[in-house]
Specification:
Blueprint (H helix, E strand, L loop, with lengths): L1 H11 L4 H11 L10 H13 L5 H10 L1 H4 L10 H10 L3 H19 L12 E11 L8 E3 L2 E11 L4 E9 L18 E4 L6 H9 L3 E4 L7 E7 L7 E9 L7 E6 L1
Helix pairs in contact: 2-7
Length: 260
């Protein structure tokens, strides 16, 4: 842990503690707290993630095995599985969520300067998809998915230009994918890329009303009628550029781009 101590101290030194303190005051996170503060909790959980700990027991055991170094690492004192678990369960998660989004915004500003020249336009480009996280039903009895399986869905909005996830949303695994689209704050002029599971015309029209753009894979049963085609340079990989009208829907024309 000696080498890890110095590495972790260097990593945590980049965290803007003043921003975190402002969030604590906003949410009153340290109200009636004497020893184990929200800042201590944050650093403990960060250390658990970076050191690949499997459980709170594993994390607390490692920290207490080197208790003389706990103060210098910012973990505070009196760390136990009980008070760490109670803090995770009772304290407002908005403190850590807002802090994470502040760090994401800072990271995007830094990485955006390295993106110059990669795109011919300055608009933001986002990919949105989900992954299913399996959970043990014996431990997470609320995460029912199938009869003998528990799971949740993590929906992620990924900034393609900076390779940074900018928005995450958790839902039960039984919730359909399209409902996560309601949580996205669409930025005017930005591009959003979806898989076919997010094909929902009412929600896609909200993107259009937000003055944003979307690219989505069509379902196999999508019915449409070609109105006219534009001339394309097939050397770019685009097979055709067509203006289509959906059958059975009162909707404006849509543009279809097909690539190899």
């Amino acid at each position: 842990m000696d080498h890890g101590k110095y590495v972790f101290a260097q990593v945590s030194a980049f965290l803007p503690q003043r921003v975190f303190d402002n969030l604590i005051n906003r949410y009153k996170g340290d109200s009636r707290v004497r020893h184990f503060t929200c800042w201590n909790q944050l650093l403990c959980m960060m250390y658990g993630q970076l050191s690949d700990k499997d459980s709170l027991s594993d994390l607390v055991l490692t920290i207490n095995a080197h208790s003389a170094k706990a103060y210098h690492l910012g973990f505070g004192k009196g760390i136990s599985k009980a008070n760490l678990g109670k803090s995770n369960a009772s304290r407002n998660c908005g403190i850590f969520q807002d802090f994470a989004y502040c760090l994401i915004a800072d990271a995007r500003r830094i990485c955006m300067s390295d993106d110059v020249g990669n795109f011919s336009f300055s608009n933001s480009v986002y990919a949105f998809d989900f992954t299913t996280i399996d959970l043990c039903l014996n431990v997470f009895c609320w995460a029912t998915f199938r009869r003998a399986k528990g799971a949740i869905k993590l929906h992620t909005q990924y900034d393609i230009r900076t390779s940074i996830p900018v928005f995450m949303h958790l839902t039960p695994a039984t919730v359909h994918d399209v409902h996560a689209m309601d949580e996205i704050a669409y930025e005017p002029g930005s591009f959003y890329i979806f898989d076919r599971g997010y094909m929902d015309f009412e929600r896609l029209f909200i993107i259009h009303e937000s003055k944003s753009f979307f690219v989505i894979r069509a379902k196999n049963n999508l019915q449409f009628k070609c109105q006219y085609s534009e001339v394309v340079n097939k050397n770019t990989g685009v097979r055709c550029d067509q203006i289509e009208e959906l059958k059975g829907f009162y909707s404006p024309f849509i543009s279809i781009y097909l690539k190899n």
